[in-house]
């Protein structure tokens, strides 16, 4: 499992963009995690799936609400990573009204989840291999804090916890 002091996995995630700009076309665009995190402080949180109850009611809304406070604490970007495709993540971003506050990054083949060692097998529930729920503060590609939830819990990966650590 990934630990504090480790580099985040160098994989390509996908991000759905609804507007052209900065070299991004409309639709899914690749995001190389190593390049995208270089020289930045990232508040990264991962969760089992888009449109799922806790993720939609608490996890994403908390980070959208705390966007300004996280920026004031030195966070450059907020990333939400989930084992879904970019089209689903784009639709979820619209539903959650995350706008430019939270980058909704698709880990469609669970490459990031597998590389972190933070997978969750939900095959029995018809959802296949997913990401565990966690958050981390990443500086220049290196994990500075890591908050992994216990099974079925939502206690330490919330925006308030990561904000306190960013201010730390």
From TrEMBL:
GO cellular component: cytoplasm
Keyword Transit peptide among record annotations: no
One GO BP annotation of this record: cell redox homeostasis
Molecular function terms, GO-annotated: thioredoxin peroxidase activity
Keyword Metal-binding set for record: no
Name under which the protein is recorded: Glutathione-dependent peroxiredoxin
PANTHER family (alphabetical): PEROXIREDOXIN, PEROXIREDOXIN-5, MITOCHONDRIAL
Reactions it catalyzes: a hydroperoxide + 2 glutathione = an alcohol + glutathione disulfide + H2O
Family that this chain belongs to: Belongs to the peroxiredoxin family. Prx5 subfamily.
Positions of the catalytic residues: 55
Native source species: Hydrogenophaga pseudoflava
EC nos: 1.11.1.27
Domain of life: Bacteria
Purpose: Thiol-specific peroxidase that catalyzes the reduction of hydrogen peroxide and organic hydroperoxides to water and alcohols, respectively. Plays a role in cell protection against oxidative stress by detoxifying peroxides.
Domain (Thioredoxin): residue spans on this chain: 2-168
Pfam families hit by this protein: Redoxin
Keywords: Antioxidant, Oxidoreductase, Peroxidase, Redox-active center
